[in-house]
Each structure stands twice: as structure tokens, then as C-alpha cells.
Q: What sequence folds into this?
């Protein structure tokens, strides 16, 4: 029995993924930038939910974060069928989102359309930012009321 060592998101296409695809996946999920991308995804999800009452689709999320003109959006090798492209892109996005979910930036229900929502790390960071803002406002207002009149 042979084991397929290719990334799970590339298995609809023959051969190994081009280096630029591996680099794109690493750029979105690796320790160096995954938290930045996850936070950006959560901000976008929060904005869409506030505006529409439901989460974006994976396609909408990734199109907003990584339009096809983006430097990180890799090119397709020649000869890849439309169905293989669609399956590969769906799996690529899903596995990127799984990493962001593991890190707590986003959350979603499997096989439920528009279930993308912010994760616990985003909520904690948001609450901390709000508390910091309140503390600064309190300090400023108490400084104005009881401060030195000179």
C-alpha cells in the first residue's frame, strides 16, 4: 500500500503542488503569519456578521482577503481541469481555515453554509481592547475633573 504524501488539499491534481502553492499555504498557516491572517479573517467575519446577520461563505472570505490578483494567490499549473481546480481551492481554503480555527481566531460548523464566526481568541482580544479603551477614558476624565487647575 502506498501512502500519498502530498498535501490533502492538492490530491485532486496529479503530481506535487508547485512550490508557490506550498509557500502560499505556509504563509497563511505558518507560525510567522497565521495569527495576522487569522485576525484579518476574524475582523472581516465580524464586519459581515454585523452588516448582514450571517457569516460570509469561505469563498467570500478568501476572495476579500486574497483576491486573485494578490501576491499570495498562486497560479494554477497548466492542464488542470475546472473540477480539479474547484475541489483543490475548496480544500485549500478549508485547511487554511482549520488552522485559523485551531488558533482561536475563527470558528465554523462543518457543512453549514455561512456559519463562519469569530473565535475565542478574537473575542478575548476584542474585550481586552474595549477594557483598555474604557480605562484610558476614565483616566482622562478623572484628570480633567480633579486635575491641577494651572
A:
Amino acid at each position: 500500500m502506498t501512502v500519498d504524501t502530498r498535501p490533502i488539499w492538492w490530491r485532486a491534481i496529479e503530481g506535487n503542488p508547485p512550490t508557490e502553492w506550498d509557500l502560499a499555504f505556509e504563509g497563511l498557516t505558518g507560525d510567522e503569519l497565521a495569527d495576522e491572517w487569522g485576525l484579518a479573517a476574524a475582523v472581516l467575519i465580524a464586519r459581515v456578521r454585523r452588516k448582514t446577520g450571517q457569516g460570509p461563505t469561505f469563498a467570500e472570505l478568501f476572495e476579500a482577503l486574497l483576491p486573485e490578483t494578490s501576491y499570495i494567490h498562486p497560479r494554477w499549473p497548466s492542464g488542470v481541469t475546472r473540477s480539479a481546480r474547484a475541489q483543490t481551492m475548496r480544500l485549500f481554503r478549508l485547511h487554511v481555515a482549520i488552522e485559523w480555527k485551531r488558533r482561536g481566531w475563527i470558528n465554523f460548523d462543518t457543512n453549514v453554509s455561512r456559519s463562519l464566526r469569530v473565535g475565542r481568541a478574537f473575542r478575548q482580544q476584542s474585550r481586552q481592547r474595549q477594557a483598555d479603551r474604557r480605562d484610558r477614558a476614565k483616566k482622562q476624565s478623572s484628570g480633567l475633573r480633579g486635575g491641577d487647575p494651572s
Summary: The mean pLDDT is 90. The domain at 8-119 is CATH 1.10.10.10 (Arc Repressor Mutant, subunit A). Residues 72 and 94 are 16 Å apart (CA to CA).
